[in-house]
Design brief:
By secondary structure, this protein is α+β, with helices and mostly antiparallel strands. The protein is built from 6 helices and 4 strands. β2 and β3 form a beta hairpin. The radius of gyration is 24 Å and the shape is elongated. The N terminus is likely disordered.
Length: 199
């Protein structure tokens, strides 16, 4: 049986082959971006597997480009796929919410309602008395899963809207109290990932 498309077919040269290169490039770069993000968060277990899949896809993409060196569409889709892959990797990381963060919340107002609301949501805040430029203040330390970032911001806005706070990534932590600890992690992250582009 004859091939449906040949390498000299215009449809193959200007659509199918460039599309294939774009998909491969977007896939391997998104995996590479996610791999680097995982490394930065000290989540190393799955990194070798991601790296293996990433480089295999990259080799296929390179082979496709080198087989059609005179086709400018391949070069254009290579670059476009690279840019798209970076965007997709960042979006995937944002949706998964891997890793932990720490909130430093500083205020001179009463924090009782904020602490009670945090406890009701399963968080375990730690408070410290301190002195700021305007007198005595309370500092609340709150370590959370990144998936809870928006929930904590909403609690602060509701119960202590005038508070100053900063957020930092936490590379590693021992013990701690976190919501969703009983839920299967794989199932939890799959539910986070779909739909991918949910705001």
């Amino acid at each position: 049986m004859e091939k449906l498309f040949t390498s000299t077919d215009p449809l193959y040269q200007w659509f199918l082959m460039p599309l294939f290169i774009f998909v491969c490039r977007a896939s391997d770069v998104s995996l590479g971006t996610l791999r680097n993000i995982l490394l930065s968060k000290n989540l190393k277990t799955v990194v070798p597997f991601i790296g293996f899949v990433e480089v295999m896809i990259w080799l296929v993409a390179v082979q496709s480009v080198l087989s059609h060196v005179s086709n400018i569409a391949g070069y254009l889709t290579w670059g476009f796929g690279y840019a798209t892959g970076i965007y997709l990797g960042i979006r995937i990381d944002k949706r998964l919410g891997l890793g932990m963060q720490i909130f430093h919340i500083i205020t001179h107002h009463n924090i009782t309602n904020l602490l009670e609301a945090a406890a009701e949501h399963g968080f375990a805040p730690t408070t410290v008395d301190a002195t700021g430029s305007r007198g005595p203040v309370k500092i609340v330390y709150l370590i959370i899963d990144r998936t809870e970032n928006a929930n904590v911001k909403a609690l602060i806005q509701t119960h202590c809207p005038e508070a100053f706070y900063t957020i930092e990534d936490v590379k590693d932590a021992n013990q701690g109290v976190f919501p969703n600890q009983q839920e299967n992690k794989l199932l939890f992250y799959l539910k986070r990932l779909v739909p991918l582009f949910k705001k």
